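P.,

For your records, the input lines for the assembly:
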Amino acid sequence: MRVKMVIGFLAALLFFATTVGAAATWREDFERLCGTTERADSMSLEELKQVVVEADQLLETIEKDGGEQKKLYLFRLRKCRDFFAYMLSAKEMEPAKE
Amino acid sequence: MKKKCLGMVVLLILMTLLVSLVEASMDGVRRKKQRPHEYGNVFINNFSEKNNIEAVVFPHWVHRARFTCRVCHIDIGFAMRAGETKTKEGDNLNGMYCGTCHNGKISFGPKEKDFFGGKKPNCERCHSYNKDVKMKNDFYEFQKEMPRDRFGNRIDWLKAEENNKVKLVDYIEGVSFERKPIKLQRDFSLNPKVVEMPEIIFSHEKHAKWNGCELCHPDLFGVKRGSQPYSMQEIFQGKYCGACHDLVAFPNIDCQKCHTKSVY
Amino acid sequence: MTARRRKVWGLAFFACVFLFLIAFRGTEVQADRADFAKVLQMMPSDGPPERYGNVALRNRSTRKGMAPVIFPHWLHRAKYTCNVCHVDLGFSMAKGGSGITRGANLAGRFCGACHDGKIAFSVKYDEQKYCDRCHLAKVSSLDERFKEFTKDFPKAEYGNKIDWVKTLEQGVIKPKTSFYSEETFLDLPANLEQPLWLGTSSPRSKTIFSHKTHVAWTDCSGCHPEIFNIKKKGTESFSMDKNLYGWFCGTCHVRVSFPMTDCNRCHPNIKSGIAGRSMGF
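Structure tokens returned:
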């Protein structure tokens, strides 16, 4: 009985650890994606496309797992995602490199 | 059938009234100017009055003397228009929005120490609309030290930073990212639609230093430079440059700040 | 369609046309010329020249038991252009709109910016109190200085009876253009250096407007875009009624700048003799 309780407790701990870990990872992803907007001018088209795709996926994650600060991070992520999308379309419209 | 005709006549009368009201626009008179200490004040009333407390009067000048625009409008997540952020008391108490700094540590919190060592609520430091609340920061004392300007707050904020009269913080622990400086952009000129006015020399560097990139692109400026001309009318109505210039940054009537390069 | 229906629709159509006409014309009441003349005779411009442009500031003074401040524009405009006070120092053009308090004056704002004992007599209680230089119970002491002050200024027929434009152009006065000496102003675009003809409701009353003479006193922001919207809608709607009421040109040219009784200054094609006689002058 006690063994079952201990196993149950450890399983619960592991479960929560993964969810907490998930929360920790979306913040890291957010920082990785949006912490470098100043580089946008020197990024290639592929890099920009990749960032936009990842940002869209992250939006869904935050929508689900955002917690109390969901509203804030969705706002920040949308701002940064839209900026990269804008840089992408601006670069696509450029005829050649200046 | 008669009802239809009557209906049409009524509709036409209403349309006429509407059009004539629009015709009687406010052109022709000077509007009441905001005083230097009031310029940049934003009134926020999403939930205050509904909860029987005065609306919030947010003074931009106190905050822009300490922080860059980006810290609040990107990192802390405030929208660019009053009432769009929809901050609640709960958000503030959870350390979001105003509560990021107004937590008793970086700046005053919702309760402050009273004479007896206890804590009393100081709601009216912010919820001060129509209340005669003396601000702890005296605007005119502050303005005395600052380089002058002709409009707005009557303070040349750009020069104030250059001369180290104000030191702007661009990073808040736990909220902002460490950012590298943006690659220097050359100034470029924008040709005015009305040919007689001097060209506009726009400095990306001056703007990006305080705003970063995402604040303007793409929400305020979503199109490639030169692809879509915009008019002063739109700017006066708060679009494009007018999102900041006329509300917080130097107002649009300071023509020569932008129209600097003589075409002649 | 039956005949009856046609009649009703026809009536409705004319009713709508009639209403449209009223709506668009009805916002402007065209004054009868005799009534117009009466209004002009009542205007402050017809008073004594030494009093023209004087503004009585009585909001807070009378509440504190002081005589109201009588501010003479004629004395100040000879030393400073409109910009200095109305832009640099933040004075409003509407009475009561500035928010002048004694505290503000003592702190060096508003009147206190110049009336500090150095540029002009001080607002402070020093060895000598100058309260009654501004808080005038009797305006005659101010009126008496007018003649001497303006004796060399080129004359005009209305208002202060001084041609301020000529006074400035001939260098009789050299008003400072900015309170802060580092100011430089936007050059007038070359195509605006020549006077412009501005249309009115009648071709005979066409107006001549010179940017140059205005820019000598104020800069772009003084008029644009609040008073004169830069969206070119034309000037035909700037009726005299609106002007006399204080809109458009009437913002200044009713109480401070040369008054509208001086018709020919703007309407050179109206024979002022004829206009004057029919107006009852």
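Two observations worth noting. Confidence is low (pLDDT under 50) at residues 273-281 of chain C. The longest strand of chain C covers residues 54-57.

Regards
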